[in-house]
Amino acid sequence: MERNLLKYVWVHSRRDQLWMLIIILLSMPTYFLSLELPKRLVNEPIQGIGFENPGDVAKFMRIEMPFGESITGSSVVLFNGIELERLGYLLALSITFLVLVVANGQFKLYINTYKGRMGERILRRLRFELFDRVLRYPMSRFRRTRPSEIASMIKDEVEPMGEFIGDAFTNPMLMAGQALVALLFIFLQHFWLGLATLVVVIFQAWLVPVLRRRLIELNKERQIVSRQFAGRLGEVVEGIQESHTNDTSNLERANIAEITGKLFLIRFELYQRKFTVKFINNFLIQFLAFFFYLVGGYMAIRGTLDIGQLIGVIVAYKDLPGPIKGLIDHDQKRNVVTVRYEQIVEQFTQDVLQDKELQAPPAEPVSRLSSGYEVSRLGVEDENGSQLIVNASTKIDLSERVAIVGTFGGGAAQFADVLSGILKPTSGRVLLDGKSIDSLPEYVTGRNIGYIYGSTYLPQASILDIMCYVLKNEPVRSLERNDQEQMHFDTFLQEARRAGVIEWDYAADWIDFERVGAKDSAEFSEQIFQVLEKVGLEGDVRALGLRGTLNPQEHPELCNALVDARNRFRGQLDSLGFSEFVEPFDPVKYNSQSSIGENLLFGTAIDPEFEPDNIASNTLVRSVLANDGLEENLFAMGKEVASTTIELFGDLNPDNPFFDQLSYMNPDDLPEYRAILTRIGNKPYDEVSDADQIAILKLPLAYTEDQNRLGLLDDNLKNKILEARSRLNTRLQELPEMPIAFYEPDSYNPAASVLDNVLLGRVSQSAAEGNERVSEAIQNLLEEMKLSDDIFRIGLNFNVGSGGKRLSETQRQKLHLARALLKKPDMLIVNQGMNSLGAREQKQIIETVLNESINYGDRKAGVVWVPVNPAFSEQFDRVIVFDNGEIVADGAPAELKKSSPVYQELIS
Amino acid sequence: MATLLEEVDLLRKIPLFASVDPGKLKLLAFASDRQNYKDGQNLFKQGDVGDAAYAIIDGCAQVIIETPGGEVPVAELGSNEFIGEIAILCDVPRTATIRAKGDLQTLKIKKEHFVGLISQSPELGIEVMRELAARLSKTTAELSEARRELNNAK
Questions:
Q1: CATH number for the B4-153 domain, one of 2.60.120.10, 2.60.40.1740, 3.40.50.450, 3.40.309.10?
Q2: Lowest CB count within 10 Å: A33, A657, A734, A781, which one?
Q3: B38 touches chain A (CB under 8 A)
């Protein structure tokens, strides 16, 4: 990678930079004229030079050939101009001035846009190249670098470069050009004034960079500390459990406080210096103004300088600090950005990167492996030089089922890593398919080997996306676009070409299911189902499906079928014996398993304002409650609830276990409620403050008679609540957007889960195992109705959350195995991949994989398994035993049991 | 559905709680869950870890000992009986399986609530001690009876 930023920019934008230069040169005459014109305006039409006699005219737009006099001896007039009177001349000059201002502005606009685009393009290229290098880093690099530091470098640290890159060449050209023009202009007006200006400018140009040297160092420090900061932040967030379980949150706080403190000191010094430099800079510029006013004014009084010239000088001078400052600033920026760039490039060029060719896409379809592994005299050392594998030689054919076991640190796991291509041999050679595994492109190993190593990491995506990831090696079916979209995409591609990034369409369909023998997506879905079933995840996925939500607009038929299932389930309640504890939602009945608030809303809130917790302060709900005095009833009930609760819990510590059971109030709020009750006393409802009303009303709204059992809810109140429910419903229907998805017996509720939609009711908490029995009965019903597959599909769309944390560790490992199997690999390598499963389940999975999963009909895959428990190796045809990095035994497990003492030890 | 006050009355009928302060008893009732069982459902199984005790409100529960030869019903318990306190007091696995015989209504008292109540109510602590001591002396008497019979048989 190019180590010099300016060279990097030049190589990738030579033509653009030259074009910019031409434009800048073109803009110079306009700029000069816009300086020249004010002088003429003042001198000629305003002060009347050349208009001394009435009837005098001036020639407007008279053009003489530059240097015509010195070349031909007399001035060569190209255009004699138009003769104008004084007022007409004033008008003509003023309008010309306006035209020049507009032209200047246009030039600026064009130049700024052009260089902005150029900078962003190169920034994109730079980021892409850095990322490309990350993808080719040796694995050892990732043991030394924190992920968030890499992210910080590629994302944040290069960001300011975009701005600079656009300016890298154009800005100095433009600024220098303008400064020279301005200076030239001053010189032309008056030689000595020009010279004085030049001296001050040169002094400034020398002094300021000297003062700024320290600034560059500070910027470099800031960059490094900021990166550490990002790294530490990422680390803390990733290991957040550690800080909770070890009570080290304050250590982390201190650490972050220290880093931010360092940043503060660096930044503070930066500010101090920056503003000092600014002050000196400004002073020197203003000093020139002082000089012009005094000396220029003196000369004007003496008559050696005319007023027009003085104004011209002052105008030119007003424009001079801009470019000069710009130049100095640019130099400063160049220094900072160059240092920053070198810093980053250094970080990205430390390692020997993997050869680009190994990741290049294949020219022709990738064939299956034709032969297995040949390992001869393999040696592997770690970074510290200790030997992990010594002189290992063996052969593993395709379709062999091999277990690799070893003593602790014996080399079995590293051997599997070498076979997968992740760990590079230090000596000896490993052949796969007859070629050295080092030189095999990743499309050979990546598409033919299934490798899992106990990782429980998953990206944040749906289960389906995670499964399909392993088959997305290149775009296989392009995305269909309409004309407009295609046009848009073409420009997008063109831009990619200009920035030199990969031109593959990310939005295309990348899933190569034909490779695994599926004719269409339906067959492929079937395969996904089968592998998930084999690893024992199918039930989990279905359960996730039951908890998922559906959009009725996208799946109208399924939603109708689920409403149908709901009706059937309701019909079965009696025969299942559930009627005692399942209470379906009925629009005209009070649901005794739900709180009063839930009974009022009678639906799932879409707008958070209508969550049960928030409705006490919701004006619409309150106005409905106020209607027939229900609000006062509830308020009285709330007082009762509050006083009973205070009586029950009043003397307990807030951390007493009894508080678990208090569902409608936060233990910390008890003192507050005590105070509110005292404040309210026996005041009539209207006189109670609004805040106190809300606080008290919250209690009954969260109160469920069947759970809390204070005996406060009678039929009269229930009826009033039901009436309020229907009033509220009418009011909500009038709103432009419904804040609540109502429980309607005949329609699907998009805000509730599939399970809740079929149930559409509540299960009494007092029924032993009520929820389990209900969800089992619903699953059976859905299966009976042949809806299981649909539920499964909903489950596949479940998003596993950040790092896959919404799944259990076991589920994540099984998912890794499932997707390795989905590839239908020629060789499956499982390197302690199922270590979070129970022993029985691991054994079961090994058996399923060996007997069913790797028989594809036309061919069989080889299996290399490093089991967590060496005893599991008995299920395999062949066992290779490692001890101290050496292969000490190799053969059928039954034989080794007799002949190898190490093996005997391992499995006992 | 019974209200809290009815449950307090019910708890008071259980000898163990007879002397506990009514306020505390109300709190216990409030914190406890109603659990209803159908015929044949288990409250818990022998060998399980104990996390709660149960007061029977209505119905009948069978005490079953699981032996290598199969299940042996040893007793039946009815209203106002208190079940499962041993396992939550001294962290031993359940010594028997309890199963509903016909519809059974119970009040489930969680371990932490029961223990919490003991620590706040010395009367209850003494009552628990008295109950356990009574059982111990009964068991000791039965044991010596059994020994004597064994000796006689030799």
A1: 2.60.120.10
A2: A734
A3: yes
Q: What percent of chain A is predicted at pLDDT more than 90?
A: 22
**A128 pLDDT higher than 90:** yes
Distance from C-alpha of A588 to C-alpha of A297, rounded to nearest angstrom: 95
> Would the pLDDT of A15 be above 70?
yes
Decide if A769 touches B, using CB distance below 8 A: yes
CB-nearest partner of A709 from B1, B27, B41: B1
Token pair belonging to A116:
């902005």
Predicted confidence at residue A478, as pLDDT, reads 87
Interatomic CA distance for residues A45 and A87, integer angstroms: 7
Residue A886 lies in a domain: yes
Q: Is the pLDDT of residue A750 over 70?
A: yes
| Rounded distance between C-alpha atoms, residue A187 and residue A298, angstroms | 18
pLDDT in tens, A885-898: 899 999 999 999 99
pTM of the predicted model, to two decimals?
0.72
Residue A690 clears pLDDT 90, i.e. is over it: no
Of A661, A711, A766, the CB nearest to B5: A711
Strand order in the sheet with A435-436: A387-396, A373-381, A427-432, A435-436
ipTM for the predicted complex comes to 0.81
Any idea what the Cα angle at residue A491 is, between residues A485 and A494, rounded to 5°? Answer: 140
- Asked if the structure places residue A401 within a domain, the reply is yes
DSSP state for residue A44 in the 8-state scheme: I
Nearest-angstrom CA–CA distance, A713 and A634: 10
Residue B100 one-letter amino acid: A
The Cα-based distances of A256 to A224, A752, B39 in angstroms read 15, 42, 60
Kindly report the nearest CA distance between residue B52 and chain A, in angstroms: 13
Nearest CA in chain A to B116: A657
Residue A769 with chain B: CB contacts under 8 Å:
41
Residue B110 parent element (H or E): strand B97-110
Taking CA A114 as the corner, what is the angle to CA A113 and CA A120, rounded to the nearest 5 degrees? Answer: 90
The Cα A679–Cα A689 span in angstroms is 10
Pairing of β B97-110 and β A603-605: unpaired
Q: Measure the CA–CA gap between A289 and A305, rounded to whole angstroms.
A: 16
Asked if A658 and B1 come within 8 Å (Cβ–Cβ), the reply is no
Q: What is the CATH number of the domain that holds A823?
A: 3.40.50.300
A787/A568 Cα distance (integer angstroms): 13
